């Protein structure tokens, strides 16, 4: 299934819903229709018992406290924003609005206002993913996973994806790069232990062990994004220096050198002479970086 591209950016879910089979604008009053005669393209009241959840919904967990709060609001104000459904035999299937659907059940409603439209399975998936992405409380990893799912299952390029979700190509790429980080770091992003800014700095570190070390430093010491960026810049500055001719070291010494480099998150050099004497060189790029290394040495 191919999709006709829309002109302009940032239309998101509304752009997908704006076609000849849906209403062109939300009407000030909800149309009242009998359960037997709801029309495609209308806003009708539909029995909650006749609505099935969306099997393509990418989000499987809903915050119970937030659902209860929304249910309390619905009890007082009613449901202001209709859900969107498609006809599925003698039932209706959710396209978007599962959180409102669940909260309406908790509020004790027996029917709910809904847009009725037609959609095939791929459109169902795309619209569910777009609604998921546009949620304000979605964490960066959930956004990245939704982006990747849209690319994989809807056969979209990054530019097409950006048009659908109202984000530029660079932003989409930055989210997708998060999925290349080690699982432990992804979990910290998901659990809001580190920020998107921390993650972007970690992405630029090529070595996974160094990424994990800096990540643990962020957790243990509460490093700011600026401190992490300085630390990463220091690593890069050391790495791009002209190579220095040093004596060859054995495999055991090479492994030790690598272990030290991971521990100190900098390009440690281990120099060993034939007589067994040598030196360990631990470079630093600033006073803050030196203090960080001294703390690791319990100095």
From TrEMBL:
Q: Which superkingdom does the taxonomy of this entry point to?
A: Bacteria
Q: Which Pfam families match?
A: HTH_ParB, ParB_C, ParB_N
| Entry annotated with the keyword tRNA-binding | no
Recorded hits in SUPFAM superfamilies, A to Z, give:
KorB DNA-binding domain-like, ParB/Sulfiredoxin
GO molecular function term, any single one: DNA binding
Alphabetical GO biological process terms: chromosome segregation; positive regulation of sporulation resulting in formation of a cellular spore
Q: Which InterPro entries is this protein grouped with?
A: Chromosome_partition/occlusion, HTH_ParB/Spo0J, ParB/RepB/Spo0J, ParB/Sulfiredoxin_sf, ParB_dimer_C, ParB_N
Q: Which Gene3D superfamilies match?
A: 1.10.10.2830, 3.90.1530.30
Alphabetical GO CC annotations of the entry are: chromosome
Q: Which residues form the signal peptide?
A: none
Regarding protein family, the annotation reads: Belongs to the ParB family.
* Annotated protein name in UniProt: ParB/RepB/Spo0J family partition protein
Tell me the organism: Pedobacter chitinilyticus
What is the taxonomic lineage of the source species?
Bacteria, Pseudomonadati, Bacteroidota, Sphingobacteriia, Sphingobacteriales
